Known about the structure:
The chain has 500 residues and is an alpha+beta fold. It is 48% helix and 8% strand. The termini are far apart.
Amino acid sequence: xxxxxxxxxxxxxxxxxxxxxxxxxxxxxxxxxxxxxxxxxxxxxxxxxxxxxxxxxxxxxxxxxxxxxxxxxxxxxxxxxxxxxxxxxxxxxxxxxxxxxxxxxxxxxxxxxxxxxxxxxxxxxxxxxxxxxxxxxxxxxxxxxxxxxxxxxxxxxxxxxxxxxxxxxxxxxxxxxxxxxxxxxxxxxxxxxxxxxxxxxxxxxxxxxxxxxxxxxxxxxxxxxxxxxxxxxxxxxxxxxxxxxxxxxxxxxxxxxxxxxxxxxxxxxxxxxxxxxxxxxxxxxxxxxxxxxxxxxxxxxxxxxxxxxxxxxxxxxxxxxxxxxxxxxxxxxxxxxxxxxxxxxxxxxxxxxxxxxxxxxxxxxxxxxxxxxxxxxxxxxxxxxxxxxxxxxxxxxxxxxxxxxxxxxxxxxxxxxxxxxxxxxxxxxxxxxxxxxxxxxxxxxxxxxxxxxxxxxxxxxxxxxxxxxxxxxxxxxxxxxxxxxxxxxxxxxxxxxxxx
Length: 500
């Protein structure tokens, strides 16, 4: 009780003093919060939606007090550019929170660690051996074989009259693709128990990353774990730790088999004995694998699921996509990666999905290292930054009829050159600047390739009497609250549906 009273008094004093100090500076406009908790109550269950509504009242740069911390929200392309390009270095760190502490080994990963030598080493190794241009080209055959396994599973489901659960199928496929790069082998049966268990682990981890924990904003009461989130985080971390320890043991025992062609985990383990200044630890490698096996799978999976959902809901779009593929590819073979540059409508569908259903609606948070000025407003040191990518994608001042799913908008002259590469701030699903997602290029290739293969290879049928649910489930990735489960009908000859 004494500790609680002390916390209440000190936090109230903090608010009073910070308010007086702020009077000498022009903070961005924002809602007037309550004592101690600030504007936490305004975030609701869907913070990206709540913040988008608030920005309509307070403007494109908005400041909120959330417990003990200040947060600034950018909600337009121009303000996003100011923070993520002009002020990029000042906002190059991530704020600590329970998820990064308990799920990625106290921020030993690449996504949530501070900008510095260890982060640069992780990014360098990842770009060079897994997600960079040459590495992506070298792994084209791996992607082709894995998509063949996916087609086999889907074809078998169609013959047996079973529904295809899109998220489970995609997540297993992408996880196997990633595991072949990291471990030189497939890990999951895309239709089996192992895949479902892994998907459940990924789903829970991504949910916990995006969950609201009051202790992240009121650190003095974090130890109470009021909602039991920290306990759940520790439990799911143990599950991943067991999985990784098993991977490590098996990999050390078989290293001699890969002397001429080491995989990504071999490269990371060799870096543990690097005589140079920076070395990796077990925690660094495990945390990086969490990044790869969760964010790398869940974000792409959610994008594919949203795209298919929108296309099934809009049969004209699905028919146009299939007509384009039939003309370019024909119906005697499957889609190849080399076909994608010749499929502008498919590319437009992917861009439109990123616009309306960004996998990371609030981007990953950043924090200012020094005070700065943005759009004439003072931003104090230690202010947390969220860029509301979801709000930018639905802004009528940026996009015509923003609530309509219309890929044709990206075929028009004014939008055709807009790409999700981090330079066009109207469309930044992977973020921008030095903390932009390192897997953006690989993610884009997998999205276009898997989605195109699915659409070209099958027709998609919603069981009679069922409606398509469009509700969102907020987490680190913005997934569907009700998974898409549909009947698929083959469009191509049976010989096409194989791994070869």
